[in-house]
Design brief:
globular; AAA+_ATPase; 4-stranded antiparallel sheet; alpha/beta; single chain; 8-stranded mixed sheet; ABC_transporter-like_ATP-bd
Length: 335
């Protein structure tokens, strides 16, 4: 039985701004088990990346976790000092960032950036770190690794830079890997190779993987479980089969309906009307109601609780009470 490696409970992440404090993540709870992939999906700006940066302890100086806990491997990271976080970051938990050209230091060689976590966390010398770095580059499929160790990020293609990021993230065999849009701006062939690399690493190291994406095709390919976010909140969660075959929230249905279906000649793409609200926009009730085609008066004034649909499938939507065809059970989650 898989056990929770990461358990985030009621986390609120806020930022200080010129107009006061605003919440980017609002009371979110989720878990990642050993050896599983949790995909976090939603439009750009819904809080996916802020959630991952909160877990990693990499929030900018004006951001902080105001409420909740982040339990990793039995320890609450919210209570950790910056020094304690540095000791586990890159060793027990690693992150593949969205854009490797900005994540990699442009004035340092690939070899230097690969050796750094190895020498820091494994307490080994430069020559041994170089040897292990070359092995890591081979592992992620980079040709002529000895040559690449001496090159700078701008000398590599986008796909190669992303492979270097994966090599750095895997250097110390982490227990948790967070991948933030790891296939963004890569062509389809390279995307598939990057996803295969992450999947192989998960199986090899028994890692838990938290993958952030807005590509539902990627979700269908790699996810064990799916968490759907909207405007800083978790609105639906369940195993990948349940989410794809029986989506309950209108927003989740909208995301799935916006994916082309080449097997159905009569399928028509459906865009979700409107746009994501600003981070500081005050919306009463369900935050999706201004864009929801099924919105009722109750949706505009009352925040829906979290209902259990079936098994681990949960959703926050008043339609669970209003429509028997949508609702599987009436059980409410009390946290």
């Amino acid at each position: 039985m898989k056990t929770d490696l990461l358990y985030v409970k009621n986390m609120v992440t806020a930022f200080r701004t010129a107009n006061g404090e605003v919440s980017a993540v609002r009371g979110i709870s989720f878990s990642v088990k050993k050896g599983e992939t949790l995909c976090v999906v939603g439009e750009s700006g819904c809080g996916k990346s802020i959630t991952s940066l909160s877990v990693m302890g990499l929030l900018p100086s004006n951001g902080s976790i105001k409420e909740g806990s982040i339990e990793f491997d039995g320890n609450d990271l919210v209570a950790y000092s910056p020094e304690q976080l540095r000791k586990i970051r890159g060793k027990d938990m690693s992150m593949i960032f969205q854009e490797p050209m900005t994540a990699l230091n442009p004035v340092l060689t690939i070899g230097y950036q690969l050796r750094e976590p190895l020498m820091l966390h494994k307490q080994i010398g430069k020559s041994e770190a170089t040897k292990q770095g070359i092995d890591l580059l081979k592992q992620v499929g980079i040709p002529y690794p000895e040559k690449r160790m001496k090159q700078y990020p701008h000398e590599l293609s986008g796909g190669m830079r992303q492979r270097v990021m994966i090599a750095i993230a895997l250097a110390c065999s982490p227990k948790l890997l967070i991948a933030d849009e790891p296939t963004t701006a890569l062509d389809v062939t390279i995307q598939a190779q990057i996803l295969d690399l992450i999947q192989d690493a998960k199986e090899q190291y028994g890692m838990g993987v938290m993958m952030i994406t807005h590509d539902m095709g990627v979700v269908a390919e790699v996810a064990d479980r799916v968490m759907v976010m909207y405007a800083g909140e978790k609105i639906e969660e369940g195993n990948v089969e349940s989410i794809f075959e029986n989506p309950q929230h209108p927003y989740t249905k909208g995301l799935l309906n916006s994916v082309p279906n080449l097997d159905d000649p009569d399928f028509e793409l459906e865009a979700i009307p409107g746009s994501l609200p600003n981070i500081d926009e005050q919306i009463s009730g369900c935050r999706f109601h201004p864009r929801c085609p099924y919105a009722m008066d109750r949706c505009k004034s009352e925040t829906p609780p979290e209902y259990i649909v079936a098994g681990e499938h949960k959703v926050k939507c008043w339609l669970q009470e209003a429509d028997e065809d949508v609702c599987t059970t009436r059980e409410t989650v009390h946290s």
